Amino acid sequence: MAAGLFVWSFGALLYLLGFFHRVAPAVITAELMQEFSLGAAALGNLSAVYFYSYVAMQIPTGILADRLGPRLLLSMGALVAALGSVIFALAPTMAAAAFGRTLIGGSVAVAFVCLLKVAANWFTPSRFAMVSGLALFCGVVGAVCAGTPLRLLVDLFGWRSVMLFSALIALATAFGSWIFVRDYPHDKGFRDFTGLREKSNAPQKTRIVDIFQVLSYRNTLLLFFIPAGIVGCILTFSGLWGVPYLTTVHDLSPARAAALTSTLLVAWAVGGPVFGWLSDRLRNRKTLYIAGCGTALAGWSIIICAQGLPPMLLVLILLITGFASGSMILSFAYAKESVPLRLAGTVSGVVNMGVMTGPMVLQPASGWILDHLWRGQMAGGVPIYTAASYRSSFLLMLAWLCLSLVLLFFTRETGCRQHRD
What we know:
- The protein is mainly alpha-helical.
- Helix content is about 80%, strand content about 0%.
- The chain has one domain (about 1-410): Up-down Bundle (Growth Hormone, Chain: A).
- It has helices at about 1-25, 30-35, 40-70, 70-90, 95-120, 130-145, 150-155, 160-180, 195-200, 205-215, 220-250, 255-280, 285-305, 310-325, 330-335, 345-375, 385-410; strands at about 380, 380-385.
- It is globular and about 60 Å long.
């Protein structure tokens, strides 16, 4: 267990860095708008290019994880992430900044799929959902670091210096992954879990056939769209528009608004492993997932539609909503169990591609609505949007989350049992 966690930790660190970059634009919206003269739609696209490349890399990453193993992918991914961070930090134009974020998104895309592959190879099946939840926890720690801590560091050193420092962490992760990570326990002198290595190393069909086979299973397509609604809400709010929304609607300072969005993320981080552990213990995926998604929908409806919420009530609802959103981590165990184990990396890539489709679509779409409803008000070179405009743009989040809840009822329960060829 300890050796597995050590190997797993390097992928977790890259995943943490990926979440940091995913959420960072929410805290530096004013700096980016001023530096590159951006409106809401343009800022949404600058943030979303991360997700464009991230999504594009998911299926290739899943295939390569099945074929090459996590060690090489994690090492190369962290190396490219360091390069992308340097380009973003030094960017003189929006185009250069977008290119840097594109490299970051495409490179850190390998982290979660490799984490799932390490979990399948280094841990017993009964711990898979819990370990997946711990991965989400580590990722959200990165997102929390991109909240109040990032705001304080940016105030002290500037956003470019902070991004350069993140490049150094990515570079250290690359070397650490190459030196310490191994694909299977036997590579470090430990005994492999019975049956897992043989199935994972079974003769592979052509890669295109693998993709079509994964998509032929009923749960795969459903679990492509379902977590996208949950994560789309979380990352559109906490990853881009939550801080300006809270400063406008609730008259909070940027630091306090960043702290509130971090509260949402902390609750999300805690909810992931709790839902994973409870699901493994009860041997149930579907019912818990429906309960979590339904609670998240109710929470977001109150946050977006209710007016004049007392601060303490707002914090409480954010905590409940974030915790319930942690149920999305069940998607990966649910999907893995719905296909043969040899396709675990491929199906994880497909589902993770769906996960990131949510913020990829919702961030720029929300920005487009904000620009469309903008009344021309400016402050310090930054556009000012009304509370009604924010609420109108957030209705897209509620619509997708409603779809996620409906689709969950059509999934087929696995009972935590792995599908057999």
